[in-house]
Design a protein that fits this description.
By secondary structure, this protein is α+β, with helices and mostly antiparallel strands. It has helices spanning 5-33, 61-78, 89-106, 133-139, 173-176, 203-241, 252-257, 262-278, 284-310, 323-341, 347-372, 375-411, 426-481, 490-520, 532-542, 544-549, 569-586, 642-652; strands at residues 112-118, 123-126, 144-151, 154-161, 164-168, 183-190, 528-531, 553-557, 564-567, 592-599, 603-611, 656-662, 665-673. It is 56% helix and 13% strand. Strand 12 and strand 13 form a beta hairpin.
């Protein structure tokens, strides 16, 4: 296994060089498509499918478009008819000058024979002794023969090369612009073996020489890409299998790179990008060199940046080395130190101190404005100072408003709401004190809830423990009652008293047990679809005897249709039984009792109204507390738990239970959601 740092570094450099060289050919290729070097591509006038590069000069765009197109323009311009009235004065002068320059340029053509004829005027221009086109075609014997014919704006192109003939009338727009006469024929015959004859060096020789130089350049580039691809692939492979670490955490160069901030990396990348695009303004070779240097530098920067990032255990620590972070940290520390100096200062003094600083700054800026006759400075200074002071005061007032809103929420019952501590001043101390009061209130509430829970559990446990001996007492009383010939006779009276009181005690214990379970929510409910109207009628039927004994006249107003709610039938029956039992116990005899069931779109309301036989001198909320009775003398058999049990049972089933008192009118209201 290779473990040489030097060798790995060489592989890294070679791979960067090879990759940069390969990628640098892409901008150069883009440059070539907009450059004269495009002449190396196969001409689209040779055949229908013309793609790629051809090393034959006569098959290239350089020959067809550049050379032949240029010769066509010269020769067609030399036979323009200037005697007629086809052109105005300015245009005629232009063509006259162009014809003269074309004739001069044609005289320097040494490596080709040409013959051009204007078919409208039969005007001829040639560098041969032939008088007609047929004679020219018959006698010339060159390496490449070309004929361009223009008739009524239709241009055709004919080329004969090495006994192969090419013909097309699909002339591109660039070549078409070379023809100055709509009815003209141009014949060109390129001499054989002209290139080595320096005595006859002309434009044709120059075009061919430039073409061969470009072909050689492309071949060199192609070979270079292949070599770079092979060498780069080998270098990358050797770099990967080399297990040595070039830049470990203790490396000198890596430690040195940590002094380079992110801004310098960005600046380097920006400069590299500018240099890369500037290369398009250079020659093809300049484009390649600038692209090669830019891409190579880009890879180097990215490589160093990646190594530097990976050297940090926490990647975000890299940003602590930036100029922006250092400036921000300096400002933060300075601001924090300033706040620490003013921490113990009262808020009023802080505002006064800030106002004095703003006034001094404003006066200083106004002096500068007056001295420099620049009113804009005075305006900006005033806006800055007034804005700063206003912002500070409004910020403190906002915090005060926030504290007031928070205390209002706590007052309204949101005892768990906690104020945010912002800054370190008098308002912060006030908010902290309120939070401490809230914490104390939370503890008091938790303690109260715990106490209530313990009392409920105690009542439940005691009630459960009392039921067993009480049941035994009741059973033994029943056994004694079944005995015959009990003497003396008054013992039967004692037994009846025991029987009555034990049964009442049983009812009280059961009520106490159920009240405890209802208040703690420790009851299993069987929620189902219940017809409230039917259940109400059933409850009235069960309590009819007691209601009749109290001489009460029931006025029932319920809908004819069934009204369904979702509730526990047994628990809801207990609620109705308690309410009807209270009516029978506490209603004024010979009065009416109103029972109404109404519904709206979403809810059902049951209302029971009766006239009390006792003075209702208590708050409606008090009567629903445990052991609270309307009969303060406690002459009736009630336990004081009926309404409390009813309220808790209704609440557990998702309903609401309310009491309303109007004089001696007692109203109980039970409300449930309508079952849909």
């Amino acid at each position: 296994m290779i473990r040489s740092k030097s060798f790995k570094f060489i592989c890294l450099v070679v791979s960067f060089v090879c990759i940069s060289a390969i990628l640098a050919t892409l901008p150069m290729a883009l440059k070539m498509t907009n450059n004269e070097i495009t002449g190396i591509f196969v001409s689209n006038m040779n055949n229908k499918e013309a793609y790629g590069i051809n090393s034959d000069f006569y098959m290239s765009r350089s020959f067809d478009n550049d050379l032949i197109g240029y010769l066509t323009e010269l020769s067609s311009s030399s036979v323009v008819d200037l005697k007629g009235d086809n052109y105005d004065g300015e245009t005629k002068a232009y063509y006259k000058e162009k014809k003269k320059s074309s004739e001069q340029a044609l005289k320097h053509i040494k490596n080709a024979d040409y013959f051009v004829i204007n078919n409208d005027t039969n005007q001829i221009n040639t560098n041969t002794e032939y008088k007609t086109a047929k004679e020219f075609e018959k006698n010339v014997d060159g390496e490449c023969y070309v004929k361009i014919s223009s008739k009524n704006d239709n241009i055709s192109y004919y080329k004969k090369l090495n006994k192969h003939e090419y013909y097309t009338n699909r002339i591109n727009s660039e070549f078409e612009s070379y023809m100055d006469i709509p009815n003209c024929d141009v014949y060109v015959s390129i001499h054989k073996d002209f290139y080595n004859n320096s005595e006859y060096y002309d434009m044709i020789s120059s075009k061919r020489e430039q073409f061969e130089e470009n072909i050689f350049f492309i071949e060199i580039i192609g070979i270079g890409i292949i070599i770079c691809a092979i060498l780069g692939g080998i270098s990358i492979f050797l770099y990967k299998i080399n297990k040595s670490i070039l830049f470990d955490k203790d490396s000198f160069w890596l430690k040195l790179s940590k002094f380079i901030p992110l801004e310098l990396y960005l600046l380097a990348l920006f400069a590299t990008t500018i240099f890369f695009f500037m290369g398009f303004e250079f020659s093809i070779y300049g484009t390649f060199i600038s692209s090669f240097l830019s891409i190579g530098f880009l890879f180097t920067v990215i490589y160093i940046f990646n190594k530097q990032i990976n050297s940090y255990e926490n990647k975000t620590d890299f940003f602590k080395n930036t100029f922006v972070y250092k400036i921000f940290r300096f400002i933060k520390i300075s601001f924090k130190n300033t706040l620490m100096l003013t921490r113990s200062m009262p808020l009023s003094r802080r505002i006064i101190g800030l106002a004095i600083i703003c006034i001094i700054f404003n006066i200083f800026m106004m002096i500068l404005a007056i001295d420099g006759y620049n009113i804009l400075i005075a305006i900006i200074a005033s806006v800055m100072t007034i804005g700063t002071l206003t912002y500070y005061v409004l910020k403190k007032l906002w915090y005060l408003s926030y504290i007031m809103n928070g205390t209002q929420r706590i007052k309204n019952g949101d005892v768990h709401y906690k104020l945010k501590l912002i800054g370190e001043d008098n308002f912060t101390t006030l908010a902290d004190n309120i939070n401490n009061i809230r914490d104390g209130l939370d503890k008091a509430i938790d303690s109260q809830l715990k106490s209530e829970r313990m009392k409920s559990e105690l009542i439940t446990n005691v009630s459960h423990d009392l039921k067993t001996p009480l049941t035994s007492i009741i059973n033994y009383v029943e056994l004694i009652k079944k005995e015959d010939n009990i003497t003396p006779e008054y013992i039967n009276d004692y037994i009846n008293v025991l029987d009555s009181k034990s049964k009442r005690l049983k009812v009280l214990i059961e009520d106490l047990f159920e009240a405890s379970k209802a208040s703690s929510g420790n009851i299993e409910l069987n929620m189902e679809k219940i017809d409230l109207t039917q259940l109400m009628r059933q409850s009235i039927g069960e309590m009819e005897e007691k209601l009749s004994e109290a001489n009460l006249d029931l006025k029932i107003n319920v809908p004819e249709e069934k009204i369904y709610i979702r509730a526990d039938g047994r628990r809801l029956y207990r609620v109705l039984e308690n309410l009807l039992s209270n009516i029978s116990k506490y209603s004024l005899p010979n009065t009416r009792v109103y029972i109404d069931i109404t519904k709206d779109e979403n809810s059902v309301k049951l209302t029971m109204k009766n006239i009390s036989s006792y003075e209702l001198n208590f708050d409606p909320g008090e009567i629903m507390e445990r052991f609270k009775r309307a009969d303060d003398s406690r002459n009736t058999e009630g336990s004081g738990l009926g309404l409390s049990i009813a309220k808790d049972l209704v609440k557990l089933q998702g309903g609401s239970f309310d009491i309303d008192i109007d004089g001696d009118l007692f109203k109980a209201i039970v409300k449930f959601n309508l079952y849909k």
